[in-house]
Amino acid sequence: MKKLARLIGLAGLSVLIAAGPSLAQSGNVPGSDGDLRARQAELYDALKDRPDDLDLMALYAKVSIELEDYEAAISTMERMLIYRQDLPQVRRELGVAYFNLGSYQAAQLYLEQVLEDDSLPAPIRGNVEAYLAEIGKRTRKNRFDFTGAVGVIHSTNANFGPEGLLNTPVGLLPIVSGEAEADTGIRTVLSFAHDHDLQRPNNDIWRTTGTYLGIRYFDVTEGDTDYLTVRTGPRLSLNEEEFGPKIRPYLDASYVGSDDSGLYYQVSLGGEYTQTLSTYWSLFADVSTGFRNMLDQDLDGFNLFRADSEIGVAYIPTRDLIFRGSLIFEQEAAEDFENTNTEIGGRLGAEYQYFPGFDFIETKWRVGGFLDLRGRFFPGAQRAVGLSDSRQDLDFAAGFSHVFGITDNWALQFDMSSLVRSSNIQNFDLDNVSVSLSGVFKL
Amino acid sequence: MRSGSIMTQLLASLSLIALASGAQAQDIGNVAAVNQDMNGTAPGQAPRLLDLGEGVVEDERIQTSSQGSGQLMFVDQTTLTVAADSDITLDKYIFDAAADEGDMALTMTRGAMRFIGGRISKKRRAIVRTPTATIGIRGGLVIIQVAADGSTRVTQLAGESTSVVAYGDIDGDGLDDGPFGDALESFLAGNPVEEGDFVVLSRAGATAQGLPVPEGDDVIIYGGLLSTEELAQIYEAFEGRGDGSTERLPTEEAVERSSEEIAAVNSDVEDGDKRQPVSTSGESPVESRADDAPPQNPLTDVPEVDQKTLSDLTGEDVDPQQDADVEEPVMMVPPVDQPVDPPVDPPVVTGPVAPEGGFVFFPEAGTSAFTQVELGSLIGTLATPPGEVETLAIELPETAAGLAPTQPDTGNSFFAQSLFPGSGFFSSTATGQPGGVEAPAVSFVVFDGDDNVIFSLTEIDEGVDAEPIVAVFGNPTPDQGDVFANNPTLPGTANSARAYRSEPLLSNVDDPQEIPIQILSNGNDGADGGRILFAELLNGPDGPRELGVAAGPLVRRDGNTAIELTPISIGTETINGDLFVFSETERVASITDNAGNAFFGPENDFVILGTPFDGQEFDGGSNTFIFSSGTALTFPDDRSEIDLFTRTATADVIVEDPLPLANDTTSRATPTTPILDSVLPVGFANCSTARSCGGTYALRPEPLVTGGELSTAGQFDFEPGGVDNNSFQTFFALDDGFQSNIQTGNAGSPSQFLLTANESDSAYLSDTVFAAASDQSESVIAGNTGGSRLVLASSEAVGTDALPAFPTAVEPTPKFARWGFWAASFDVVDAQTLQPDTDIVDLGLWVAGVRPDPTDFAAFTGTAGFSGAAIGTMQSTVDRAQSTLVTGSFDLSYNFAQGVGDFTLDMPGAGVNSQMVSVGQTGNVGSPSYGGSLAQTDLQVRVDGVFYSGGGEVVAGTGGALDVINSANNTRTLGIFAGDKAAPGTIGGPVK
Fold first, then answer.
1. Phi and psi at residue B822, in whole multiples of 5°?
2. What is the pLDDT of residue B178?
3. B124 to chain A, minimum CA–CA distance in Å?
4. How many alpha carbons lie under 13 Å from residue B123 in its C-beta half-sphere?
5. Partners of residue B156 on adjacent β-strands
6. Residue closest to B56 by CA, chosen among B83, B91, B84, B103
């Protein structure tokens, strides 16, 4: 229990650390919009009387941008150009305003006009070119992202084994782990995402993502892991709004290998659902069903059909801060009834991005943490226990991650995760804390 | 037909808002820029040139010449930038600032317009009608171009959506009619478009075109994505020449300063080029699911497979990679033409006496007896080496204590535990000389009490594709078996209950010169088949025992068609039989070799079996061997050969058909004994091997307590004269943890199994025998009701002399409790196949007594001691095996005031040596029941007990059920204990 309490405390600290900077810098939160909105209205009234006052228009545009009311800013700045076309600064701001609305053709139009000015200061040119480069990426019909991370991992329980292995009284566990062993190893994470623009009048895309997680411990080979998962499917608009509800039916295939041999593969069909609820809230859900086939016939009892579901909400008070909370329900129907189980739980998480304040850092740093609590119930009697006892697990997981971006392409990443599984069957008890430090390359 | 124009409809739909706002006839906007000229025509007024800042009103017509353009800004911050040669009418404009909502409708018959939405379009669509389309704009920046022929091009620059619909010009006013009525309100509210021809744009740069179709409804087509070049051409028209009647031109410094202020919050924002777009409707644009979360280690869902540990536990190589790495087999039988190293003298052997005799069987090469066998390592010198190997040495532990229970899940282990206490399996290495060839080996070893190896069976694995070599050292003495064969004490059969004895049929003969046969069988009847659980034969053509083989669970004979089994090797003269490999556990009626010789079946009384591995785990057929077969020469009880397999039960206690008795109440016996209640039955039920439950599941009282009593015992009443109370009902905990294919049909706990025999079909036959059938009652397993049959006989019926031996000084018959045997059959339904089946309790145990009055019992506050006998049936934990009776004793010291006690169980045969279990009161306050468990790493004991009254004492004795998993982790014992309270002062003092 002490260990559980310590890990819970550690996890709580993780989330606080993740949310801390955002809370400290929460000045730009919804509560200040009212003042800006009043100021904008005041300026607008003034503009009615002095519609050709460029100073007033600029001020109005600035306030509107602060409110992220880019439409008002754009209309005003374009009016400025009606009065004076020789305002490259205004064209630059117009381009960025359109960029922030995702209107990349218009943004590109204005930004390229800015570059026509040969006397443009180098910093401004660089700034404009950065936006144009980003527009170029975002308007490709096929967009690829790749991330690779390689680093060192240390786990207090590399093989996910119990602290003490109890000989089973009336049989044996078909899957058992040796007693917990700590070890250090190499962790590799490779991920890619491919978005194919379906060129429809909305933003529908076909998205394919893949992730590989490989862990090689120096000594405890039982903890060696190869995990490859690929998910593909279209992300479709469910109504006519650009930011309206989206659904992504998908096919998901996974392979898990362990200790240099295949453990199982899994194929699922499912759907993700997202919908914005308000300025700061949105809803997400994921439902899937599939099967898992163990590759070792001795483990056929773990072959299963599964149905997973998650529903949650996100609170996004600022561009850089997001909180998530979700409820999770999973059902696994295994070939061996004793492995059939129902899992119910919840997850809380927070992510925050910020600039660290170092001049040589070109990108934001990102910090995140999560807490995850699950109860898992096995209705069938466990051979490990015999009699009529059924297995019941309580999993508590927590994690913390910090990405120290250096450039757009390179970063260092620190991850920490912990898992405490408390089961009524001693052999299923386990706890683990893993920490890793990786070098990250993004493309 | 429509009635009225869209504007009429719109007006109607907006009337409430209009009344609320009271904004009619007021300026709805102002002229924000005029480049050259822009005309305005207010309703009922002449056209006028619009001046900068001048107001415009609802229904005003705005026109520009080929040289003119301008911009209008509306109350809600909507702006219209009007290009040259355009004609737009501000049909309706209503905005309620307090509610922050309104409606807006325009008509555009030619030209180009850039619409940038304000507050109104964030909540409801703003409408623009053209000759060929009706455009609904929500939260957007939209460019609308209308050509001379009325064709319309709509480009969404940004925003939530722009719906471009075409209904056609039915009323002939030169404009598209758009939706009307409820459809109009739905359209304004932003609902999905469902009528007319339409395209919805919800991405930046997407275009749609409204095209006129002669004499038909107009059409809307999706025009693809706008290029930057096309957009530049359009924007040039809006921008004009940059001299929009400026009256207040700022200084350059002011422009610079203003621009920098904007840039500070816009273009110069750190990481601004990485921002994601925001919504124009005010809703969060974030897709809130974290797609980029780092992957979770999947092994937390499926615990890491520790191949080594799994191999250790199962005794099988479960690592396919390891399989792949297997080196070329080390040939124990080198080819004749292969040079070999010179012979090496076997090491000097000292120590205990070596077993006598033995042989080695080489597949496809023959058998060679050992001419000399030495102990230490088991070393045998081959009499007729089939190859170059002359001596074979197998490294074994030196004492029985060194036999790690590496095979906890085999019938062999059970055999070892029950019949040969000093036995077990051991992984070793076999070395052949000369040549020094080595190969892994698994040995079953039997030690005597002085740690002498008296028998060893070893399988030597020469490689993946090679059949194993089998080496047998010594001759086992099978006299340890036959626990029940000569035991007439067991409850017998009831015609209705069909409960059978669980003893082996045959025992050794007295004449050692005759071929001894010992087969332990656990079959039940002819229909259910005879299940050979253990076969052991000492066989030789000349009579002396030369061969002994232990075997685990093998087959269940049921009279079905024989299954073809392919012989892979022919035996030798010494073995006089064939070697077979089962491809899997099968139900066989007989086994024949290639020549058609049957060596298992009614004509053959025995087989010699070897199962070095778990009989369940067949992998391509390499685990179970039949070495030989033959015909028994002598049967001790003169039963026919067929009896060996049909298992006609015999017993001293014969219960005549209880059903007629049960139905004929006048024939029932009159109980003369006191009422017995708190009956605790335990036992193993055997299911057929056709089902995948593996054979045995355990039944024991469910340790749930309700109503102040151990209700799991149910009622088992022998009430004098009370024929209506001859009933039996009990709950069991049901454990078939190996396969989980039995599911109880009870509404309660799935592990509970309710058995009820009502008085109508139960019979109290004597003071010691009770029988019941419950075809009409509530025997429920796997949803099947009815069809249970049982018979119970007390230890008195068995007779003291016939009872198994109890430890010295243990009184097997307590004064105030009764115990005995029971057998039953239950109709079940396989939970997976839904096929009906019948499971049988061959030999169960029960204990009963009279519960004390709860009120009296609650008055106890002292401490008392109890002691008595314990008896259990022991089986292999993995597969169905022969039930073996084990006996022992117990002591209980109980503090009634605190409801706690120390229960000490001594049952060496079950692996329990004076283990103490802390027990505590169970059930409600005042319940005379207690229970507790001991869970050590390798030993688990569970006891559940009840106090009994008698002899005028409120508490006079105790009895209960026990459940033991032994220290070797390979057998389980279900049993009972029953004893009396010690005399006051002897243990724990008197009870108040």
1. -145, 155
2. 84
3. 12
4. 12
5. B142
6. B91
List chain B residues with CB under 8 Å of A167: 408, 937-938, 969
**Which pLDDT value is given to residue A229?**
92
> CB neighbours of B191 closer than 8 A, spacing ≥ 6?
none
Q: What is the DSSP string of A82-115?
A: HH-S--HHHHHHHHHHHHHTT-HHHHHHHHHHHH
CA B78 – CA B74 distance, rounded (Å)? 5
- Chain B's closest residue to A235, CA to CA, is B287
Beta-ladder partners of B459: B442, B470
- Cα dihedral A54→A57→A58→A62 (10° resolution): 180
**What is the spatial order of strands in the sheet that B555-557 belongs to?**
B517-521, B530-537, B555-557
Cβ-Cβ pairs closer than 8 A, A with B, add up to 471
pLDDT digit string, tens, across residues B543-556: 322 222 222 222 22
What stretch of H or E contains A124?
helix A122-138
B434 preceded by a cis bond (ω within 30 of 0):
yes
B348 class by beta-carbon count within 10 Å (0-12 exposed, 13-18 middle, 19+ buried): exposed
Report CA B421 to chain centroid distance, whole Å. 35
For an interface test with B, the pick among A71, A303, A354, A402 (most B C-beta atoms closer than 10 Å) comes out as A71
- Return the minimum-mean-pLDDT range out of A19-28, B100-109, B423-432: A19-28
Task: Name the one residue in this structure whose structure tokens are 């019949």.
Answer: B419
SS3 A200: coil
| Selection from A116-120, A166-170, A335-339 with the highest mean pLDDT | A116-120
Q: What is the pLDDT of residues A304-323, one digit of tens each?
A: 899 999 999 988 888 788 89
Buried b (16+ CB within 10 A) or exposed e, B948-976: bbbeeebbbbbbbbbbbbbbbbbbbbbbb
Q: Is the pLDDT of residue B624 over 50?
A: no
CA-based nearest residue in chain A for residue B163 = A240
Distance from C-alpha of B535 to C-alpha of B415, rounded to nearest angstrom: 10
What residues 297-326 of chain B have any CB closer than 8 A to a CB of chain A?
A: 297-300, 302-310, 313-314, 316, 318-321
E-strand stretches of B131-191: 134-138, 141-146, 152-158, 161-166
E strand residue ranges, B478-590: 517-521, 530-537, 555-557, 567-570, 578-581
Cα distance between residue B943 and residue B791, in whole Å: 24
Q: Compute the mean pLDDT over every residue in chain A, rounded to the nearest whole number.
A: 82
B284/A282 Cβ within 8 A: yes
Cβ atoms of B382 and B368 closer than 8 Å: yes
**Cβ <8 Å between B202 and A244:** yes
Residues in chain B: 992
Are B178 and B10 in contact, with CB atoms under 8 Å apart? no
Q: Does B63 touch chain A (CB under 8 A)?
A: no
A contact residues 183-212, partner B, Cβ 8 Å cutoff: 189, 191, 193, 199-203, 209, 211
Rounded CA-CA distance B457/B164 in Å is: 88
Whether A119 and chain B come into contact, CB under 8 Å, resolves to: no
The predicted pLDDT at position B436 comes to: 73
For residue A80, give how far its alpha carbon lies from the nearest alpha carbon of chain B (Å): 9
The Cβ-side half-sphere exposure at A134, using a 13 Å CA radius, reads 22
B259–A166 CB contact, under 8 Å: no
Closest-CA residue to A274 (of A264, A265, A266, A284) = A284
Question: Which H or E run contains B425?
Answer: strand B423-433
ipTM of the complex, rounded to two decimals: 0.79
Contact at CB, A100 and B275, closer than 8 angstroms: yes
Q: Is the pTM for the entire model greater than 0.80? A: no
DSSP label of B675: P
